[in-house]
């Protein structure tokens, strides 16, 4: 009888001890294991940029285009196509330094990354590499957006996972695909690729257009690789993407019917748009280009499929310039049927280039028209490039579009 009582007492004590241990784990230990615990200084909430995107009080809006960073694993990833006399040691950190220099020098309002942000075969962990790629712009607090190239998905993440991850990063305004309801005809699941979206830039505070979009930015996924008729080729922008693009353009133009007030002119010019994607269209290779500003060093490595991108952009009427990457030694702007197609030029040191020729970046500046008392719509779009040399040399400045001229 006494042994049974002793067993019962022991069991009771065990239950009490286990309950007490569980209580300690729940109240004292578990909170410290949570990522969001305040003492860990880890913030899960995404840091959002000030939205909407907006022109400055001086009537300008500046975009820094970063093309083909080709980031690998950081300091252990060596540079390609640099002279031994240029650097004691060259790695991905040189790419990071260049981006920091450009942000400090140009003080852009927005940064657009146009694909091959990482070089998948050299990046052992895609997420870690992306965090390093975008770290300088995140630390600057600037709004930024990205599209994918043909090498980004060659590491540890799919294209869908990459765009989802990029969209969740601090100050990113990227989207995996259009938000549901962006157009009546198409929803996000109906569109090929990942990274198709548009961003609107509003007028200056205090102006009549403070609550109106005066500039639109289109971002498109141009794909990676494909097999056509048994032959390997590059990806292309699909018809579903073009249908979405035409729909968005039509909607935006419908929101700006009063062009006389918007632009201070009777020419009925719609608000201008810019487009960003990675792989060039076939017409850039086939030509003829009416004008070329910059260096044309290699044939455009485009798809064998012509999906009608140029015809779509021309028919829309609002796109004044397109910004692309992919061909690193090209940094020219070429004029095709009323639209400028501009290469960003090779930015990253792990991507191929030309030994002895500095890496470069492109800057795009929009200027508003000055009314009698306030800023109106976009009057002019300019661009130039900067080399990653001692002086960040500024080259090939040109006007891409002016409201008072056809070019």
Automatic annotation (TrEMBL):
Pfam families recorded for this chain? Metallophos
Return the SUPFAM superfamilies for the record. Metallo-dependent phosphatases (SSF56300)
Check the record and name the InterPro entries matching this protein: Calcineurin-like_PHP, Metallo-depent_PP-like, PAP14/16/28/29
Q: What are this entry's molecular-function GO terms?
A: hydrolase activity, acting on ester bonds; metal ion binding
User: What are the names of the required cofactors?
Assistant: Zn(2+)
- Keywords recorded for this protein, A-Z: Glycoprotein, Iron, Membrane, Metal-binding, Secreted, Signal, Transmembrane, Transmembrane helix, Zinc
A single Gene Ontology CC annotation of this entry is: cytoplasm
Main localization of the protein described in the UniProt heading:
secreted
Q: Where in the cell is it found?
A: Secreted
Statement: the UniProt record of this protein carries the keyword Metal-binding: yes
| Residue ranges of domain Calcineurin-like phosphoesterase in the record | 61-329
Q: Which family does it belong to?
A: Belongs to the metallophosphoesterase superfamily. Purple acid phosphatase family.
Quaternary structure annotation from Swiss-Prot or TrEMBL: Homodimer.
Protein known as: Calcineurin-like phosphoesterase domain-containing protein
Q: What is the source species?
A: Daucus carota subsp. sativus
